[in-house]
Amino acid sequence: MIGDGARFSGTSDVDPAQLEQAIKAPCAWHAADLTPNDWIMPIPANVMAELDNLAGILNSYGGSIEALTPDRFALSAATELMDSVRTRVNEGVGFAVLDRLPVERWGDKVAKAVAWVLTSMLGPVVMQKVDGTRLYEVKDSGAKLGYGVRRSITNLDQDFHTDGGWLSETPEITTLVCMRPASSGGLSRVASLATAHNQLRGRHPDLLGRLYRPFWWDRQAEHLPEESKSSRHPVFAKSDGKLTVRHYDDYVRKGYKLLCAHLDQQGDAALVAMKAIVNAPENWIEFRLEPGQIEYVNNHVLAHARTAFEDDSTNGGRYLLRLWNRRAGGIELEQSTEAAE
Q1: 299 and 105 in contact (C-beta within 8 Å)?
Q2: Which terminal Cβ of the chain has fewer Cβ within 10 Å, N or C?
Q3: Pairing label, strands 95-99, 40-42
Q4: What span, in angstroms and rounded, lies between the C-alpha atoms of 267 and 213?
């Protein structure tokens, strides 16, 4: 059962705990605060030597990429580099771009496997679909946007969002491995949701509390047939004194439509205010991912987006790989089959 009308609309007599002070951590940035040096992390020569050796081993590997674990290989320098990536993602500006794997020299098969091994150093790589997919291909499939068809497999633009907002446990890190960029467009954007929280606190304190209360989210058809198509989660949550954010205006509004439910007026106003702040040009940065670059984004405090793109027949099409890291809750897509109470 969905429950009573108050819980269904998202209103409640109990206000969840909120952050009481402005966030002053490095992840609460504006576009003017950053230069490419803040997020681009070159691969040092000693790390590349280890990765070239790994590539040679993997060139003849015939098993599943998902069976590969870092402890099977001599990668001490690479481990140290990925520790630095983790620090920048978790304690610094919230994202990093590793620059870069020699995709052209290694080929797609080996580059995918090396990227998997490196990303596994940040924590378990978890499922992204109910069918168990953990290595998700981001490319234009030609499919038309509709229920169960994510924008990630079209060439359409994609608004700022965090990945897996409908899940009981969202991924901590979203990883994008660029195998091939688009012929034109397909630019990456990143925005700080910590900054959005600060600005909402200053400009719309009357709406901030609503974002700490639950909304219905479209589960993107990633559930068993007998389960609810929508799940209930807040946009903002306070956990151990820190902020955790889920953000995707589109998925929330679709979550209500799937249930033929009414989004309350305050909830609508809060979503509109947050989207306007996140989309403000002074609050996001834009860059082009090049072949072999790997983007790591803190999915709990940053949102990411991409512009629409076009491909021609000569480059094989824009092709990225997406991986999700989550240290808690196992590798399953959901920790519970109950999406709604």
Answers
A1: no
A2: N
A3: parallel
A4: 9
In single-letter form, the type of residue at position 163 comes to D
CATH superfamily assigned to domain 20-325: Clavaminate synthase-like (3.60.130.10)
- Name the token pair of 23: 């966030």
Spell out the alpha helix ranges (H) of 72-153: 76-91, 103-106, 108-120
Closest to 20 in 3D by CA, of 243, 191, 235: 243
For residue 141, the model assigns a pLDDT of 81
Average pLDDT estimate for 17-28:
95
Contact 185, 308 (CB under 8 A): yes
Strands 236-239 and 242-245: antiparallel
User: Which pTM value belongs to this model?
Assistant: 0.93
pLDDT at residue 13, as a whole number: 46
H or E segment and range at residue 258: helix 249-258
Residue 189 phi, psi dihedral angles, 5° rounding: -130, 150
Q: Per-residue pLDDT for 338 more than 70? A: no
Collect all residues with Cβ–Cβ distance below 8 Å to 146 and sequence separation of at least 6. Answer: none
Q: How many CB atoms are located within 10 Å of the residue 311 CB?
A: 20
Tally of CB atoms within 10 A around 313: 7
- Count the helix, strand and coil residues of the chain and give each as a percent rounded to the nearest 5: 35, 20, 45
